[in-house]
């Protein structure tokens, strides 16, 4: 009998994380369905199975439910698996991992599938401390296809601009005039992509208008693998998308990065952006060595088998640890608030009551 899985989907960035995992599940002859939270953009394809209600998920009865956000509905059946929506790069300048939201333990998950040493080492300490979840270093599901050989053959350089949504950290309000100037004065192509949580529509419309007015600019609602592959340099701030780009052995220019290092060409003034991009396009040896080292610290594997490792982790937990480790905390207040938000009181999983 095939195993069943569910993708708990909150924001648009989840699609590129889950689809490689979906491919691996189907390759094993197993089944997977999607549950979209209210407000999540519906980008499902015709061949992707949709579960429209919480009752549908319960009746589907998955072996595991995957989440790349920080919360998952505790009352749904299945092993709760965190596969993350980015890397722990200290976006807010955290020097102490205890203060990094990437490592927050909220009591929702049974499994954390970490990406590399930067996340595994501290999560292993948290596993020993809390004892109600297991940690598996699997690599990140999204990047399995990043390591396919790809040769850029463009005569005109392409700059990919991406930004975080965090207020006070996002470069989007500061770099519009600079990017607009470079669009008009440099023989470069531009791809502009923004975090789905950015809600300043006036600002976004300015960037959309820039793309509409210039043939060398594209506005991208959901960044794709080919956008990384077909770009030469990234311009960013403190988003974890930086590391995704570096996995392809490509340089990044950042504006006021909160945790700068030798792996970045970080600038603190808009007047420095142009020269920094020019330097990045030359790919200095010393810089590229730092880029490679930084990427390997965060993403352990280059074999394209991260999704298989995630599924194997679920099997191992199910066979060797489910029901045998410490029970998750009751979290009664959090659970009440979640149910009250959903107005859902019908189903109490047995493990929740124990």
3D structure, described in words:
- The strands form two sheets. Strands 3-2-1-4-5-6-7 form a seven-stranded parallel sheet, sandwiched between helices. Strands 10-9-8-11-12-13 form a six-stranded parallel sheet.
- The chain has helices at about 15-25, 55-60, 115-130, 170-185, 200-215, 225-230, 240-245, 275-280, 285-300, 305-320, 330-340, 350-354, and strands at about 5-10, 30-35, 50, 65, 80, 110-115, 135, 160-165, 190-195, 215-220, 235, 250-255, 265.
- It folds into two domains: about 5-140 and about 300-354, Rossmann fold; about 145-300, Rossmann fold (3-Layer(aba) Sandwich), CATH 3.40.50.
- It is of the alpha/beta class and about 350 residues long.
- Mean pLDDT is about 90; it is low at about 350-354.
- Strand 11 (about 235), helix 7 and strand 12 (about 250-255) form a beta-alpha-beta unit.
Shape: globular
Number of helices: 12
What is the β-strand count? 13
The CATH architecture name of the largest domain reads 3-Layer(aba) Sandwich
Text of the CATH class of the largest domain = Alpha Beta
On the 0-100 scale, what is the average pLDDT? Answer: 90
- Determine Rg (CA atoms, Å): 21 Å
Number of structural units classed as domains: 2
Largest sheet: 7 strands, parallel
Question: Which structural category fits the helices and strands?
Answer: alpha/beta
Q: How far apart are the termini?
A: 29 Å
Strand order of the largest sheet: 3-2-1-4-5-6-7
Which regions have little confidence, pLDDT < 50, spanning 5+ residues?
A: 348-354
